[in-house]
Write a structure and sequence with these properties.
heterotrimer, A mainly alpha (about 350), B alpha/beta (about 240), C mainly alpha (about 290), B: about 240 residues, alpha/beta, Rossmann fold, four-stranded antiparallel sheet, 10 helices, globular, C: about 290 residues, mainly alpha, ABC transporter involved in vitamin B12 uptake, BtuC, two-stranded antiparallel sheet, 11 helices, 2 strands, about 5% strand
């Protein structure tokens, strides 16, 4: 050795490499579903996709940046409405409108943030909720968008997505898949970026990271805008699939925030893997207990409460702790060559 | 039977061990001084007695009872009171309210508002002022008075002289004999060795979480103290 | 004259909002807990009253004799058995647990009482009115609510600043660890604070149920009004909270007067303006409950 210590910094692990192979195979299978699956399966997978994407975005906010929002439905509804506005009034192709809906959501997140960032902690949470209510009430006032009763996407625009119904459903399916993959990729990219370390610092201790000079405000604002972009795009996807939007459906607390929070908390907050597990559990419980009506929501709420109290790191946290698995390696690890040893580590 | 006895007391802050097997015996009526440099474990020891240290090994017997896992508020009810480092007055309470909250346990005994005001007449004049409007010395008097209001069998005083002018320190220390005379046993923790030696019947010196010297203040020499305090031979 | 009447109605509505807000504010003051389920607890109180009224045939206002102790006891148990375990340095557990609780409460009420809209009938009290000089008339019951709000806040202030329990609340709010050194059991004190808060919630819930229609889903909106009143008035100032409630009520009344669809929106917008211009509220009081 020429005097340099023999180590390297790596982020991937053996399990993460195995995980990415399995992930790639799974993704290929999912891409092929429209060629052999039925209409119901496709609709179901799209729903799973948008819940996964919403969960990733909320987790980025709450789990990493400490911004516990209960008002993300603001961006779901806003993104959904933007899809309708851009395609109906500006005649844009719905798929282009979907991406632009994300961009516009990010833009509207800036003034929103300037208001809600004046509140801290739990007050921030309720502040975001008020903002979502404001958006809901504002859109209910716009008669061109159907006011309180909402609006359907005109047939001509629906047809502009694809010529036939089955082709349109395939397109929406692939877009849904792409949005989910993009959401996961976005979070992964954010965490591996310059801001990633700052975010982990914020997550681990707000006070400590302030004292080491992390520019909390800028980082948080940036994350808030990124999450609004993702959430707005998912909102556009949701209502591209539903073909009809109304203020109550678009800005629905239960559907777009409560369920999402339960997914993340149950799966494991502050990890990329957590929302995957959470979505699995969420849909499993729904398939099993959906006909119980409100008891299903009581059960879901109770499970989330118990997990928050007894295992706040969620199901994935328990798995990762027990088996030391990280499928999305966002931590940097120090690897020493085999003949070197860290003093005191055996 | 001794009023307080600790055996092999160890305390931890997470992975960091702050106390290593402290054995200490305090008889009723004594005034005991614990001295030591910054970080020697003095305050940790007092916190451990009060039930404020979660990570604790060993045994603490107070008035014949093993304190074990008792919570801080339960321990206070048994007759142990702390004058915390930095006074820690309740900011939104007046002087008199601070004293009254000290009597929350309603333990009977000689200390009441009247007798505490008798001990510190200054506080009576300022009884309606917010605790934080007082000078450092006056705040220390409130903190002592507040602890006395629980009529403790054992009064623990953490760094009474910290941040106070010498003349104020003298005033504060002058009341200690009166407190003892009313039946309280006193443990004082001090960095000011002279002050501690002057008032105490027994001396413990801590260094890096261990007892390095113990004895009667008259029977230990300067050199012994210096060595026990700083952990080095005299040059 | 019509506008004067609108503003008076808004002020009186503000009394109800102040009642919604007082419990929320007390809990935050004593234990720094923001209870997302607060609005659902108000609705719970309304349904408890409904059950008492239909079960025992009591007058709704008389039902308070039962609803207040029931809600207070529920508050004590809820705090001691669940919410105490969420308190600590991490803001997530209290937030998410009370959020979960909110969903659970709403759906339990839905399961028991269905989604039907309900109303408590107080024997004509809800429609009675008082004549004011200048040909104005105000509802008797809204006036009663406003007076009750003032009385509740005055009692709470008396309790906080003149009683031993209030002293314990303030000391615990200042410094939990030192409070323990006074022999104060935090868990018990927090539970007592929640009991007091839910006693106030009981009053708010019953008044709401006589004044307007309610169903299991209206809780979140009550939480938001309570929250807005607290923030507009300034944290830690009960009379500020009353003022905040009044400002919110007047804004909503004026908004509704201009366009019925703008009632709630006008309230939110005034709240947001206050938040941007005076983030610490209009009547902030430092270092107190």
């Amino acid at each position: 050795m020429n005097g340099h210590p023999a180590f390297s910094v790596e982020r991937s692990t053996r399990t993460s490499r195995i995980g990415s192979v399995i992930g790639a195979v799974l993704l290929l299978v999912l891409i092929s579903v429209p060629f052999w699956g039925g209409r119901a399966e496709m609709r179901f997978i799209v729903e799973v996709c948008y819940y996964l994407a919403l969960a990733q975005m909320w987790n980025l906010l709450a789990g990493y940046a400490g911004l516990v929002s209960v008002g993300q439905q603001a961006f779901v509804g806003f993104g959904g409405y933007m899809l309708f506005v851009l395609s109906i009034f500006l005649g844009l192709n719905p798929l282009l409108a979907l991406v632009l809906a994300g961009v516009l959501s990010a833009a509207v997140a800036v003034p929103t943030a300037l208001v809600v960032f004046r509140l801290r902690g739990a007050y921030f949470a309720i502040g975001t909720w008020v903002m979502a209510e404001v958006y809901r009430l504002l859109f209910a006032q716009v008669s061109a968008l159907g006011g309180g009763s909402g609006k359907s996407l005109p047939v001509a625009i629906v047809k502009s997505i694809a010529a036939s119904r089955s082709l349109r459903e395939m397109t929406v399916y692939w877009v849904g898949l792409a949005v989910a993959v993009a959401a996961v990729g976005l979070v992964y990219a954010v965490l591996r970026s310059r801001h990633g370390l700052a975010l982990t610092a914020i997550r681990d201790s707000e006070r400590a990271s302030e004292s080491v000079g992390v520019e909390n405000f800028k980082t948080k604002l940036w994350v808030y805008i990124v999450a609004a972009f993702g959430t707005g795009m998912v909102g556009a996807l949701i209502f591209l699939e539903k073909l009809r939007i109304s203020p109550d459906a678009g800005f629905n607390l239960l559907d777009w925030t409560a369920n999402v929070i339960f997914i993340v908390v149950i799966g494991g907050i502050g990890t990329i893997e957590g929302p995957f597990i959470g979505v699995l559990v969420f849909f499993l419980l729904r398939e099993l207990f959906a006909d119980l009506g409100s008891w299903y929501l009581i059960l879901l709420g109770a499970v989330a409460v118990v997990i928050m109290l007894k295992a706040p790191q969620g199901i994935w946290g328990l798995i990762a702790e027990r088996y030391n698995i990280h499928l999305f390696p966002v931590h940097r690890r120090l690897l020493l060559s085999k003949d070197d040893k860290i003093p005191g580590e055996d | 039977m001794s009023l307080l006895q600790t055996r092999s007391l160890e305390a931890f802050y997470g992975d960091f061990q702050a106390l290593f097997g402290i054995d200490m015996t305090v008889e009723a009526g004594e005034t005991v001084a614990i001295i030591g440099a910054n970080g020697a474990g003095k305050s940790t020891f007092l916190k451990a007695l009060c039930g404020l240290m979660p990570g604790l090994n060993g045994e603490v017997r107070f008035d014949g009872l093993e304190l074990g896992d008792l919570t801080a508020h339960a321990i206070v009810r048994l007759g142990l009171a702390l004058v915390p480092e930095g006074r820690k007055l309740f900011q939104s309470l007046s002087v008199e309210e601070n004293l009254l909250i000290g009597a929350h346990t309603k333990r009977p005994g000689p200390w009441t508002l009247e007798t505490v005001y008798g001990l510190f007449p200054m506080l009576h004049q300022r009884r309606h002022a917010p605790g934080t409007d007082l000078s450092g010395g006056q705040q220390q008097m409130v903190a002592i008075g507040r602890a006395l209001m629980s009529n403790p069998k054992l009064l623990l005083c953490d760094e009474l002289s910290l941040g106070l002018a010498p003349v104020v320190i003298k005033d504060i220390y002058e009341v200690l004999p009166e407190i003892s005379a009313q039946g309280s046993t006193v443990i004082i923790v001090e960095q000011d060795i002279n002050q501690a030696m002057a008032v105490s019947d027994k001396l413990y010196c801590l260094q890096e979480g261990r007892v390095t010297l113990q004895g009667h203040p008259d029977s230990v020499t300067r050199d012994q103290i210096t060595q026990a305090y700083f952990g080095m031979e005299q040059a | 004259m019509e506008w004067v009447s609108t503003i008076i109605q808004g002020v009186l509505l503000g009394g109800l909002y102040a009642l919604f807000a007082t419990g929320l504010s007390l809990i935050f003051g004593v234990m720094r807990l923001v209870n997302i389920a607060h609005g659902d607890l108000i609705v719970l109180a309304a349904f408890v009253s409904l059950a008492v009224v239909s079960g025992l045939g009591l007058d709704p206002l008389m039902s308070l004799v039962i609803v207040i102790p029931v809600m207070a006891a529920f508050g004590y148990i809820l705090q001691r058995g669940l919410l105490n375990y969420t308190l600590g340095n991490n803001i997530l557990p209290p937030l998410l647990v009370t959020f979960g609780l909110s969903i659970i409460l709403e759906n339990v009420l839905l399961e028991i009482f269905s989604a039907d809209s309900q109303r408590l009938l107080a024997g004509g009290l809800e429609t009675a009115s008082l004549a004011l000089p200048g040909g104005l008339a105000v509802g008797t019951f809204p006036v009663m609510i406003f007076v009750s709000a003032v009385a509740v806040i005055a009692c709470l202030q008396f309790m906080l600043y003149r009683t031993a329990l209030g002293r314990v609340f303030r000391a615990t709010s200042d410094d939990q660890q030192t409070a323990q050194l006074m022999g104060i059991d935090n868990r018990h004190v927090f539970a007592l604070a929640m009991a007091v808060a839910l006693a106030i919630v009981a009053v708010a819930g019953v008044f709401m149920a006589i004044r307007t229609n309610f169903d299991p889903s209206v809780g979140p909106a009550r939480l938001i009004y309570a929250f807005e009143a607290v923030i507009i008035g300034g944290l830690g100032n009960p009379w500020g909270t009353l003022a905040g409630g009044v400002i919110l009520g007047v804004s909503q009344a004026i908004g509704a007067k201009i366009n019925p669809g703008w009632q709630i929106l006008a309230g939110h917008i005034v709240f947001l303006v206050v938040l941007v211009v005076r983030p610490r509220g209009l009547f902030e009081k430092v270092q107190d409950l």
